[in-house]
Specification:
Blueprint (H helix, E strand, L loop, with lengths): L5 H4 L2 H12 L7 H24 L14 H13 L4 H21 L1 H4 L3 H62 L13
Helix pairs in contact: 2-3, 3-5, 4-7, 5-7
Length: 189
Amino acid sequence: MPKLSLQFRSSPVWAVLSDFKEFYTSAQASQKDMENAELPKSHATRFVLHMYGLSKSSRLDNFSFLFNYGHIRSWPVSLLKQGYAVTSVKNMLFNSSAFMSHLCVFHSEMSGLTVSQFDQILMQIKRLQKDNARRIKAHQKSALHAQSAEAYSQALETAHLTFLQAAAWISLWLSRHSFGPPGSAGEER
């Protein structure tokens, strides 16, 4: 994750992101639970930073900068260009959607967004999730095709080696045994 400025860490936006992490943990959370809750917060933070970085706003007192379709649509593309796998993008989109739902339910007043804007943002993320699901399916098909081609190639190689071994064994056996017409001198040696 990129280094966060002091301005960002002391903003209400950061407080809501921290609350999102706490939402995923219980009062008696183990160390592992705390580590697991860090991932959704990290994904939500990446989403917020992407949106904030593209906006012309310098305000961090609310989330009004999140309402921009172009910026929302560019996020998965940006992640893929950074080298994230399509399954990682899937998880990040899911956690971003969960964060937006959390923001709507628990922090709607300070968010600077209307319920309609929340719905539109969530709809955009849902569309991106569908697009990404298509990418995953296409990736799985190409990977399966590559695996099938590899398996076929290995099967042919194995069959060829088996054939060569059988031919060598038959040749060796025939060289040790000679058969001619019955009663001739060429009977089995």
